[in-house]
Amino acid sequence: MAVLVHFDYSRPMAKQAERRAATSEAILTAARRLFGTQGFVATTMDEIAEAAHVAKGAVYHHFKTKEAVFEAVFNEVSRDLVAEIDSTARAEKDVLAAMVAGTQHYFAATAKGPTGQIILRDGPAVLGWERWREIDAKHFGGKLPRAIAAAMEAGLIARQPVEPLARLLLGAVTEAAVACAGRADIARAGAEYARAFRSLVEALRVAA
């Protein structure tokens, strides 16, 4: 009598996908620490592999170049920074104050430490300004139009087309970040631009 044995082919594939995801996560965790502490130029793929406890070939299997690893890390750091900004902004009294607080947090966070090393010190040089702006707009750009629309709805600023104002404000922050990246005293420059942005936003506020 023949016995039919059912084999679930999906399970080995699922386990393989889990292993790939775990390897990729280990690589990015190691690379993020190394890029953040010693910078892109000083970090090698060998060091990333060693820190991630994987073979060098595994790193190249997931990421073709060191630049590709960096871009993935840059996206990850940007996503985490957005989460921090959202948390900071929620504590403010209204949308305009939240915009100012979020921008201040952005400049403070990128002025020092691993976040600053990855976002401002290495980001533009490794990715190029065009790609840097694309990624920055993906993470931060969508928030500004929604915030401006909410401010208009709340009567905090005069009603007007949202997109032009959002582009102008986002452009101001982006160009300030570009300027900060070229300064030796990033922390001081960031604080100056954050204060200027606050003046710019508060000037839009409708008098009570």
In short:
With 208 residues, the protein is mostly helical. The chain has helices at residues 10-38, 45-52, 56-62, 66-89, 95-109, 113-127, 129-141, 143-153, 162-181, 186-202.
Q: What's the Cα radius of gyration?
A: 22 Å
CATH architecture label name of the largest domain: Orthogonal Bundle
Largest sheet: none
Beta-strand content: under 5%
According to CATH, the fold-level topology of the largest domain is Tetracycline Repressor, domain 2
Task: State the CATH class of the largest domain.
Answer: Mainly Alpha
Helix content: over 70%
* Arithmetic mean pLDDT: 89
Extract low-pLDDT stretches: none
CATH superfamily of the largest domain: Tetracycline Repressor, domain 2
Shape assignment: elongated
Distance between the termini: 88 Å
Q: Count structural domains.
A: 2
Number of helical regions: 10
Beta-strand segment tally = 0
Structural class, by secondary structure, is mainly alpha
- What is the H-and-E element order? HHHHHHHHHH
Protein name: TetR family transcriptional regulator
GO molecular function: DNA-binding transcription factor activity; transcription cis-regulatory region binding
InterPro entries: DNA-bd_HTH_TetR-type_CS (IPR023772), Homeodomain-like_sf (IPR009057), HTH-type_TetR-like_transc_reg (IPR050109), HTH_TetR (IPR001647), Rv0078-like_C (IPR049484)
Keywords: DNA-binding, Transcription, Transcription regulation
